[in-house]
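$ run holo --ligand "SN-glycerol-3-phosphate" --emit tokens
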Amino acid sequence: MPALRLPRFIAHRCGGALAPENTLAGLRAAAARGFRAVEFDVMLSADGTPVLIHDETLERTTDGRGRVCETPDAALFALDAGGGERIPTLAEAAALCGELGLLANVEIKPAAGHAARTGEVVAAFVADRWPAGEAPLLSSFSAEALAAARRIAPQARYGLLYEDVPDDWRAAQARIGAVTLHCDAARLRDAVLAEAAAAGVPVLCYTVNDPAQADALFARGVAGVFTDRLDRFA
Ligand code: G3P
Ligand code: MG
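-- output --
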């Protein structure tokens, strides 16, 4: 696995605020702004298809109703995810990232009760079907999803994802073989930064929309930030 090409700025939910979240239009907006990395959220449909969406329910980001994990593909892909965009499959997003030269941070976002299966499906896709070019970075708030993914794709790159990093994160890092540590910018403690620096693990913080906050984080040793405000950082 080649070294991780980690830019300082990562577009959040594909294109941040420049496009409907978690859409192909967002990937194009990020690339057009000069971003080289994107983060997006992946959940399973009722048919087990990995798709890009953040919430467990459809209401906030689409014109549909109900739970993503109970909605079959035919109904899911008929919805408007904003501006006439359709909910993309992971396969479509991966192909476009390859075409645009974007590093993808695939955040495995399982619906409740579907953690292991979601991790397995995403990992199988990454192992067998990810397009040639840069391999993605897989992360998840769900330790169960990450462990399941790693059983399927031990060779993939993993990032630990927390709101507040727990004191025992190094044990989780060893279990998963994680190469990055992701956390809420507001909750990052200096002790964690020191441990990460000593371990050679880059720290990435979400969600940073204020350039002054980004500068302060970089000064503390943070390697990169996830941002919605692509217009402020490009
Ligand atoms: O992966 C970083 C960040 O996206 C985590 O928060 O809720 O935006 O998925 P959320
Ligand atoms: Mg996310």
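-- notes --
The radius of gyration is 17 Å.
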